[in-house]
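G.,

No rush on this.
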Amino acid sequence: MFGLIKAVWQARPVLLSRIKSERGAAGVEYGILVAAIAAVIVAVVFAIGLAVNAAFETVNTELGGGGGEEPPE
């Protein structure tokens, strides 16, 4: 336990300089942008899927139900 505390204490200047550095901020910002773009893509694909499904349901209803059954006379 004391070895871990000693190692962290000795690495403190390096850790503090890394925390104060803004070099890693760009990576976080790019990660957030990628996540936001992915969320938009998922939403658009979901919306398009619902629209396509509604169109197929409309065509299916207009054609007489589908499902391999004979249309009513």
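When you get to it, here's the other one too:
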Amino acid sequence: MKRLTNLFLVITAAILLFSACNDDENYYYDYEPPAKPTNVLAINGDERIDLTWKNNREADLSGYNVYFSYDNYEFDLIGSTEENYYIDYDARNGEIYYYAVTAYDFDGNESDLSESYVVGIARPEGFNQAVFDYINFPESAGFTFEDYSVVPFDLNITDFFFENYEGSYYINVWDDGDIQDMGPTDNIYNISEAPSGGWVQLVPGENVKYLVPEVGHTYVIRTNHNHYAKIRVRELTGQRMSFDWAFQLIEGETLLKSSSSDAYQKRNMKVVKKIYE
């Protein structure tokens, strides 16, 4: 019985070996690369750029390669993913990066770089910061985006300061800055870009521009050094205002967070051209 069993194993192994050789001879190697990824989008964050794109539909799709460039000419591979998103955690705030994506299949065929390359500009942000009423706490009433810190309300680097005047709250900016209420928002990321107009006007005879803050509203500020920032009020409690913030390091640049629109990407390209001119 043992000999019959061994003979059966030998015959089975021979059949499997023959089948494997036959399958190898008939295997079709795919030389066709996947299509280029489309609808690539860069979302600016703090020391990061989040990239997304439309999923490819090839049945043999294996994943995506992500490339970046400093000059939009020479692209280097920075990572791979099986999903249609990637986060560049090596992005540095205030620097411009170009991104493109390729798709590859299980046979190692890789598409060309995506045509809808995008530009990312990371920018700093902060959460649950607090400033205090300038009348009672003048040394901790102001905030500067120069080093993202609480400062006295009356310094030349103070970008805004908080006031509680007889129970009424105000956000103040000096007369060489600007401020605007962008309305209620879900979080600090909702506002993508600083407005081109609609700023609070200076009241004749005064040296500050001011708004009455509301919890859940986001306010865009133009500093006296022509940088744009946004703050979202989290809480108002007597002598204290807490807020989240984001700040654009590039002078004159109004982009604060990217959106999904083509108009944003075109706007991003104008930014880069302006910087390099």
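Residues 181 and 190 are 13 Å apart (CA to CA). The radius of gyration is 28 Å.

Enjoy the weekend,
O.
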